[in-house]
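It is worth pausing here to work through a concrete case rather than discussing structure prediction in the abstract. The textbook approach is simple: state the sequence, then state the predicted structure, then interpret. We follow exactly that order.
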Amino acid sequence: MLKAEGLAAFRGERLVFRDLSFAVSPGQALVLAGPNGSGKSTLLRLLAGLGRAAAGRLLWDGQDALADRGAHAGRVACVGHLDAIKPGLTVAENLTFAAGLEPASPGSGLVAAALQALGLTDLADLPARMLSAGQKRRLALSRLALTTAPLWLLDEPTLGLDTASIGRFGGVLAAHRDRGGIVIAATHIPLPLADVKELRLA
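Step two, the predicted structure:
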């Protein structure tokens, strides 16, 4: 379980939020809602261990989640506003690199499954620089299918996706939750998530 107790955060000298508490159990999904500038991205950065809270604490299974930031990094997978792909590599090579695999390694079946999950199989040999914005987003999201990290932190994950791609991504999210994974996402667009909890930031 991930639990936040009384979190507060500043951006510059501005207090973004305070007294923020919530808990998310294995298999659950939490959507962060609110207007631009309400602190959704700031909260995701804190949950990822990329920033420091001004107050409060973050717990993982009852222990300080950030006491060992290296260990916390191993249980988190993030997709932010930037797609973070290497334009000089092909689509498949990007995933092979992300998975830490050697080309044509026994783990390449994982890459094939990730490509299929987001409908990228036909684009596997295409240089990433030639992808459309939506295709680049799908490539960024397909990295999630490679990870065993239990906590997924997503910032506007469906930005630029068409309806069919959002549906495919919904399958990836459902499979992660079925394995006991946790999804926390900031979004202005409804995500294909069942039984989702919402945390609205003012």
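Step three, interpretation. The mean pLDDT is 92. The first helix runs from residue 40 to 48.
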